[in-house]
Write a structure and sequence with these properties.
The chain has 404 residues and is mostly helical. 76% of the residues lie in helices and 1% in strands. The chain has one domain (31-91, 149-401). The chain has helices at 2-14, 24-31, 33-41, 46-67, 75-102, 104-122, 129-149, 152-168, 172-194, 200-223, 229-242, 245-249, 252-262, 275-286, 295-301, 311-343, 349-364, 369-382, 392-401; strands at residues 17-19, 22-23.
Length: 404
């Protein structure tokens, strides 16, 4: 059974495509549905994940039919978006099941191997191999190995080293997240010597404060030229343009906010953007002092549906309020689960990093393979049982939920 669970994690993370929109992971999710559905249902928030997932798919179909009157629609796009959402919900369920057999650290390690295998299968982006291909698999594998060692100092060293490598390879956001994760692991270790425990609310407050300090610290390092003059110049230009490094580097946020304000119920998973949608999106981007009249906006963002470079924006626009509710539910699970582990001094560097990554991706990364993969692992490692029971399987899952 352990061999099967490990193999499933590798195949799921590798995202091997079989047909249009259908991956081997989706097929495995369907075949293993009776197994993982029970395991996921027993966890706090598991029923909400499955419920919002199903409602989101239906909502995407209904919205597509509604907007067909004044928009061009695509059955293949609807199918692709629906399968992508299925891969998220099914992936969480499968990894939760695997974790109940392998434990958290081993599950993460095999999952990381699958991510690396996917990079090999799909090819490398030679423009920046670390940033676009290797950073996520390498981070998951390295931190999973550190997780197995149960040595906090090793985790801190690995996080700091990965942060430097990311910053030197023009991955400023990843560098910031790794730096914040390292600071939180240090705080967890130091506070464990001072007090026996903390609480979730206090831990969440520490998360927020550390994230803000880490962001401004790394921004200062970049602007001072610690990670190269090119990165410093580009950051200075983005701040001068929009007043913020975040908004300057993510002008798509303007498009998503304007589109959602104009269509709060969403537009549908098979709906293609029309001229009005394009104008609304460009208006939002122009407000951030970004020139939207270029091929990136018209071809990448709206050439085949809606891609606003934000998981929350993508899910809201494609699947409506239920899509947004699904992501918010997942973020709450990750936040409370991670804070609960940190409060008990049991959170690994990997869990802390994945939690930060999940929140970053929800606002600034598209709903595609990499962001889905990290979100799946983040949720699966932070879900906790609803209640304690005398059921042996529930007891084991309860233990595994906090094991390293």
């Amino acid at each position: 059974m352990k061999v099967l669970a490990a193999l499933v994690c590798v195949i799921l993370a590798a995202r091997v495509t079989l047909l249009q929109g259908v991956t081997a992971g989706i097929v495995l999710s369907v075949l293993l549905l009776p197994v993982w559905a029970v395991a996921l249902w027993r966890l706090r928030g598991g029923s909400a994940i499955m419920g919002f997932g199903a409602l989101s798919i239906v909502s995407g179909i209904v919205l597509t039919d509604f907007f067909a009157a004044d928009h061009t629609t695509s059955d293949s796009l609807l199918q692709q978006n629906s399968f992508t959402l299925i891969s998220l919900v099914g992936g969480i369920g499968v990894v939760v099941w695997a974790r109940s057999i392998l434990g958290s650290a081993a599950t993460a390690l095999w999952y990381g191997c699958g991510l690396l295998g996917g990079v090999v299968l799909h090819g490398l982006n030679m423009d920046n191999v670390w940033k676009f291909d290797l950073s996520v698999p390498a981070t998951v594998i390295v931190l999973a190995l550190c997780m197995l060692s149960r040595k906090p100092w090793l985790e801190v060293g690995a996080l700091a080293l990965l942060a430097v490598v990311s910053a030197l390879n023009d991955s400023r956001s990843a560098g910031s997240m790794l730096l914040v994760a390292a600071a939180l692991v240090v705080w967890q270790t130091v506070s464990a010597r001072l007090t026996t425990s903390s609480n979730t609310v206090r831990t969440l407050a520490v998360f927020g404060l550390t994230a803000v300090i880490g962001y401004f610290a790394l921004q200062a390092f970049i602007l001072e030229g610690w990670f190269g003059r090119a990165a410093a110049v580009r950051s200075e230009e983005q701040i001068a343009l929009s007043g913020s490094l975040l908004l300057g580097g993510r002008p798509e946020l303007g498009a998503s906010t304007e589109l959602i304000a104009a269509n709060p119920l969403g537009l549908g998973s098979g709906t293609l953007a029309n001229g009005i949608d394009l104008l609304v999106a460009k208006t939002g981007m122009a407000r951030l002092n970004y020139d939207p009249n270029n091929g990136y906006v018209e071809k990448y963002m709206f050439g085949n549906g809606f891609e606003v470079h934000s998981m929350l924006g993508d899910l809201w626009i494609r699947f409506g309020l239920f899509g947004a509710a699904l992501l918010l539910t997942l973020l709450v699970i990750v936040a409370l689960g991670t804070a609960g582990q940190v409060a008990k001094r049991q959170a690994s560097g990997l869990v802390v990093f994945l939690a930060i990554q999940a929140f970053w991706d929800s606002l600034f990364s598209p709903f595609f393979s990499t962001s889905i993969s990290t979100l799946v692992l983040a949720v699966a490692l932070t879900l906790v049982p609803r209640t304690r029971t005398s059921d042996p399987s529930a007891t084991r899952l309860d233990f595994v939920s906090f094991s390293r």
